[in-house]
Specification:
By secondary structure, this protein is α/β, with parallel strands linked by helices. The protein has a domain of 203 residues: 3-Layer(aba) Sandwich (Rossmann fold). It is 46% helix and 15% strand. Strands 3-2-1-4-5-7-11 form a seven-stranded parallel sheet, with helices on both faces. The chain has a three-stranded mixed sheet with strand order 8-10-12. A two-stranded parallel ribbon has the order 6-14. It is globular, with a radius of gyration of 20 Å. The C terminus is likely disordered.
């Protein structure tokens, strides 16, 4: 029997790219699946409707509307890319899937999106090196509540278990490259730095270098699709408390990236100097980039000792490495010049339902 998939944040960078990948797949299991996309605006409905899928204009904060959408469209799998920070949106979807399971008697699945910053010292992680095979739920529960991303991870895993929903958490790193969705094609992170550098005619870096985990958008999408395929194949894969997946393909140096961006932008006469300068203050950085000052240091300097295991055990095989990333800086600049229509920050992405 075919299964029905709902992608939230389907007009966004990651969600839209997942949607495009699924549509392009030739696998009979994907072809048999009915794909629905949840978006927020009528404009987004019109943009995605031409893809030949079921597009829902859906307010994920409306519990009743979410339940009706999941039940009426007989959704078995939800891929939630719309928000990592608003746990109530995930909870509404999980509750709806629980109702769907009671009606159908079939297993239902929830794939949640989190972020790697939460597993860094700068993001409040006190345990040092961390593998996605560790007891991450237990460790997250030991940390004082109040971080919305971490609280959402706990909520998803615990409530899914209570309601009989099989859950997975894909922990997304800094992601780069051109997306393939119909709407947002820009990496939120780098495009924000490039846009700000153009406005200030200067590329800035922070007083401390970071070495965060990262992955190309195509590799991140490949992990989501791999999990979906395993579900469709009815394979037994780690889920629930053991279902964290670090989507980390490689690392990079923030300072080196900012320097490459400075050189690429200077060559295009977009900035005055080919050297990255230190931000005069975190306050100035937060105001210029549009990030909350509270999260500025974590966003700008995080590293984290993450060790991905689960994704590779599934057969995930990232194609992009650090050298390829570093050599792509001019294309990242060009992408902003060609495609920039949205002025979203990382925090806006996490907070809203557009990803």
């Amino acid at each position: 029997m075919s299964q029905n998939i709902l992608i939230t944040g389907a007009a966004g960078y990651i969600g839209g790219s997942i949607l495009a990948d699924l549509i392009a797949r030739s696998s009979s299991l994907i072809k048999k699946a009915n794909i629905s996309a949840a978006v927020r605006s009528e404009e987004q409905v019109q943009a995605l409707s031409k893809l030949g899928i079921n597009v829902l204009r859906l307010d994920l904060s409306d519990e009743k509307a979410v339940a009706e959408a999941v039940i009426q469209n007989q959704i078995d799998i939800v891929v939630h890319t719309a928000s990592s920070i608003v746990g109530s949106l995930a909870l509404n979807l999980i509750k709806a899937l629980g109702q769907r399971r009671e009606v159908s008697g079939d297993q239902v699945y929830f794939i949640h999106s989190s972020v790697t910053t939460m597993f860094s010292e700068e993001g409040g992680w006190p345990f040092g090196e961390v593998r996605d095979t560790d007891d991450l739920l237990g460790q997250e529960k030991q940390i004082e509540p109040g971080n919305p991303v971490r609280d959402s991870n706990i909520l998803v895993t615990e409530q899914a278990k209570i309601l009989g929903v099989t859950s997975f958490i894909v922990v997304v790193p800094y992601t780069y490259g051109r997306g393939t969705g119909e709407c947002k094609k820009l990496s939120v992170n780098l495009s924000t730095y490039i846009r700000t550098s153009i406005a200030k005619r200067t590329v800035y870096k922070f007083d401390k270098d970071g070495n965060p985990p990262t992955a190309h958008i195509s590799d991140v999408v490949a992990l989501y699709t791999l999990i979906i395929m395993r579900i469709l194949n009815k394979d037994l894969v780690p889920s629930g408390e053991k279902g964290y997946y670090f989507a980390m393909a490689h690392r990079y140096s923030w300072w080196n990236v900012m320097q490459r961006i400075a050189e690429a932008m200077h060559a295009r006469r977009l900035v005055d100097e080919p050297e990255a300068k230190i931000w005069p203050s975190y306050e100035m950085a937060a105001e210029s980039l549009g990030y909350p000052l509270l999260y500025m240091r974590a966003i700008g300097t995080s590293t984290g000792e993450l060790v991905p295991v689960n994704a590779y055990k599934l057969g995930w095989n990232p194609k992009w490495d650090e050298e390829m990333f570093m050599n792509s800086m001019d294309d990242e600049v060009l992408a902003v010049l060609e495609l920039d229509t949205a002025k979203a920050s990382i925090f806006d992405t996490l907070l809203t339902t557009s990803n």
